[in-house]
Amino acid sequence: MCLFCPAPSVAPSSPWSARRAFLLAAGAAAATPVLAQVDVGSASSLRKLVPAETLEQSAAQQYRQMLEQARAKRALAPDNHPQLQRLHAIAKRLIPYAMPWNDRARQWRWEVNLIGSSQINAFCMPGGKIAFYTGILDQLKLTDDEAAMIMGHEMAHALREHARERIAKTQGTNLALRLGSQLLGLGDLGQAAAGLGGQLLTLQFSRSDESEADLVGLELAARAGYQPSAAVSLWQKMGNASGSKQGGLAFLSTHPSGPARIRELEQNVPKVQGLYEAARRNG
Questions:
Q1: If we measure between CA atoms, which residue out of 162, 230, 237 comes closest to residue 200?
Q2: Which residue(s) pair with 109 in the sheet?
Q3: Through-space distance between the first and last CA atoms of the chain, rounded to whole angstroms
Q4: Measured in whole angstroms, how far is the alpha carbon of residue 221 from the centre of its chain?
């Protein structure tokens, strides 16, 4: 099955002017993995109160708007941009291991885009819409292993449906107050999901959400053959960046670094080391 399904070629008016979206067929073949090596428990059942399709459609619409804005500023990387090609290669290795974490991922049209900006930021929206900013690659001088840990972490937020859960908790509470003893209606929560607008890019995840994303991302990257210890060096770099005078720390405003985060990753690196070594042997 084809992993890469790029948009038709268009002659760009500048090196950053044309969108060269990167699409991956969600049903990519991969060996069925053994049971997860990291322990994150079951995904919250609260997320089921929000229709997944509605949220993913809203995310896709917002993603397209973001790309249009970047294109208008000539800040959207074309397919031949070396950093974007690097991200495509990482995504191609990671995505086949996403399916066991969320069966819906088989239906997602994964995309990876690169935006020229000094911001230290990256994200994966519901439905597999990934974006990196050049600032996070350049200012932190990320190795491929470290970039894979970021991508795996952001993919994990989408796979564990943290945005869907956040909406269910916040909007559900408001609806419960308004409806009293009546059952929560999916239509109301679906409306909330569809009307999020720009909130999906600034949604604040809980500490437990971040911990889950760290560990699931660590395992995804290890299975794809990326060095697990890079998760530790990545967050050490994040910590150094947060204490420096570097600007545009959008990623760190929603993903704070700290000793506890690094300790938890250090404790889990040995759990996935065997997966990494097996991937390197078989790769």
A1: 162
A2: 25
A3: 18
A4: 12
Beta-strand ranges (E) seen in 85-220 are 109-115, 122-125, 129-133
**Tokens read off for 225:** 């053959």
Amino acid identity, position 79: D
Which of the residue ranges 33-37, 61-65, 170-174, 219-223 would you say has the lowest mean pLDDT?
170-174
As a whole number of angstroms, the distance between CA 144 and CA 221 comes to 11
How far apart are the C-alpha atoms of 99 and 60, rounded to whole Å? 19
Active site annotation includes 68: no
Say which range, 36-40, 106-110, 252-256, has the weakest mean pLDDT. 252-256
Burial (Cβ within 10 Å: 0-12, 13-18, ≥19) of residue 43: middle
Out of 154, 165, 210, 212, the active site residue is 154
Q: Is the pTM of this model over 0.85?
A: no
CA 194 – CA 185 distance, rounded (Å)? 14
User: pLDDT class for 244, splitting at 50, 70, 90?
Assistant: low
With beta carbons less than 8 A apart as the criterion, state whether 152 and 218 touch: yes
d(CA 2, CA 213) in angstroms, rounded, equals 27
CA nearest to 270, candidates 212, 213, 231: 231
The radius of gyration of the chain's CA atoms, rounded to the nearest angstrom, is 19
The whole-angstrom separation of Cα 219 and Cα 228 is: 8
Label residues 89-120 b or e (16+ Cβ within 10 Å = b).
ebbbbbbbbbbbbbebbeebebbbbbbbbebb
Distance of alpha carbon 196 from alpha carbon 61, whole angstroms = 11
Provide the CA 101 distance to its chain's centre, in angstroms: 13
Closest CA to 114 of 89, 143, 145, 149: 89
CA atoms of 196 and 175, how far apart (whole Å):
16
